[in-house]
Amino acid sequence: MRKILKVLDQNLGYVLIIPAIIFMLLFSIIPIFESTKYAFFDFQLNDQQKSGLYFNERYNMDLVNETYEYLDYYLDTELEVVTDEETKAQIDSMRNVYSDQLNTIHNVFDITEGILELSNDQAETLRKLDENTYSMLDALYERNKSPNGELILEEDIYAVASELETAYIAPNFTGVDNFKNIMKDDRVKGSLVITLIFTVASVGLELVLGLMLALIMNKSMTGRGMIRTMSLIPWAIPTSVAALIWAYLYNGSNGIVAMLLAKIGIIGNSADLLLSGSSALGAVIMADVWKTTPYMALLLLAGLQTIPGSLYEASSLDGANKWQQFKNVTLPLLKPSIMVALLFRTLDAFRVFDLIYVLTGGGPGGKTESISIYAYKAMFAQTRFGYGSAVVLVMAVIVGIISYVYIKFLDVQLISDEG
Question: What is the mean pLDDT of the chain?
Fold first, then answer.
């Protein structure tokens, strides 16, 4: 028992992180792996032929069984209306042959139902049987084209026989085709441009306003606690609720923000705010800035409180004014906090979904459609999960590039060289 306790004590850190590892595995690593896997397939839930991930050709045995059953039923119906003995004999012979063919198919796979993977030899055998099925039908109904023809179900029986071709499920592995299509997709390019505009504008405004708010909240004043609490209320509101609030404020008939913007001449008519591309995107950016500026301010405030007050006292003794203190003391020491705040907010803004989805749905005419909105529509509206997953992977790559650029550009040393 002591040995066990000693081992646990020595490895307590690893034991404590097990729940976090399990959480990351279930909600991060596995979903990322699945998205990566789908991105290399033409996976579509609304298409029976593409509703799975297939590297090789497959065969729907259940559909084949049903098709031969219907063929036998229709041939039996034809047999009831035919009076010509030779045609009757031909139909009887066809029914026997089809029964033998179905038994042959079952023997090929040694199974009678399910979705089965085909080898090249098996596929060739099955297609020869299908050709025989069609040739016998052609011979039967060619005979029926004479003036004394009695058969009545030619169109229906050929429609049934066509299901034999549907039973073959082609492989939907596409390799990098989804990514090639993304490079050619104008809608992806458009949504990416909109996302970048939204990200740059919103994060830039949030940095400036957040820094101003953080400087105010960092000052010693009466009611500072109340100011900090009140300033964080927009960030505490759920994004979907905030979007509904702004949708009401932007309403063309009674929204106060829309009416105010129309009166000061920023927009021509209050009803046009969410109905034109440029104004709708501006409205979305305004709502995002209001919602997340307090979050930026909170991150920067944490950085400001790590700056010793003695530095400001020393700079004052040296004759530095407030602007010089801000430029030469505050900004350099706040650089790590700015990097973290910018990084977090940029990644969050680039992946924006809920605010735009609730406020505009990507409209009007896709003028506010972010890359996340487009990926959602591709996957869930069009059920093109393979293509949508590829779009999401492209987003992940861009997010990684943004992170790398931020760290390199700001040149922040997060780990000390000492020790």
Answer: 86
Residue 256 confidence (pLDDT)? 87
Residues 260 and 369 in one domain: yes
What is the DSSP code string of 135-166?
HHHHHHHHHTTSTT-----HHHHHHHHTHHHH
Q: Please give the Cα distance from 86 to 236 (Å, whole number).
A: 84
For residues 168 and 127, what is the distance between their CA atoms, to the nearest angstrom?
Answer: 10
Asked, for residue 48, whether it belongs to a domain, the answer is no
Query: In this structure, which amino acid lies at residue 405?
Result: V
Angle at 273 between CA 270 and CA 277, to 5 degrees: 150
Q: 53: alpha, beta or left, given left = phi > 0 and alpha = psi -120 to 50?
A: beta
Nearest to 365 by CA among 190, 179, 204: 190
Judgement on whether residues 380 and 289 belong to the same structural domain of the protein:
yes
Q: Are 228 and 302 in contact (CB under 8 A)?
A: no
- CATH code for the domain of 248: 1.10.3720.10
Q: Which of 64, 67, 70, 71 is nearest to 169 (CA)?
A: 64
Structure-block tokens of residue 354: 């809920």
Question: DSSP labels for 171-203?
Answer: --B-TTHHHHHHHH-HHHHHHHHHHHHHHHHHH
User: Domain range spanning residue 305?
Assistant: 185-410
Residue 206 has pLDDT above 90, yes or no: yes
In residues, how long is the chain? Answer: 419
% of the chain with per-residue pLDDT over 70: 96
Residues 129 and 195 in one domain: no
Structural domain contains residue 180: no
Q: Which residue has the higher pLDDT, 197 or 221?
A: 197
Residues 141-195: tens digit of each pLDDT: 887 776 556 788 888 999 999 999 988 988 889 889 999 999 999 999 999 999 9
Which CATH number fits the domain that encloses residue 116? 1.20.120
The pLDDT score that the predictor gives to residue 128 is 92
- Dist CA 35 CA 284 (whole Å): 29
Rounded Cα distance, 57 and 156, in Å: 28
Q: Is residue 351 part of a domain?
A: yes
Residue whose C-alpha is closest to residue 383's, from 37, 42, 31: 42
DSSP, collapsed to helix, strand or coil, labels residue 62 as: helix
Average pLDDT over residues 217-238: 82
For residue 374, give Cα distances in angstroms to 134, 199, 204: 45, 16, 24
Residue with tokens 């209050």: 270
> Can you give the pLDDT at residue 264?
84
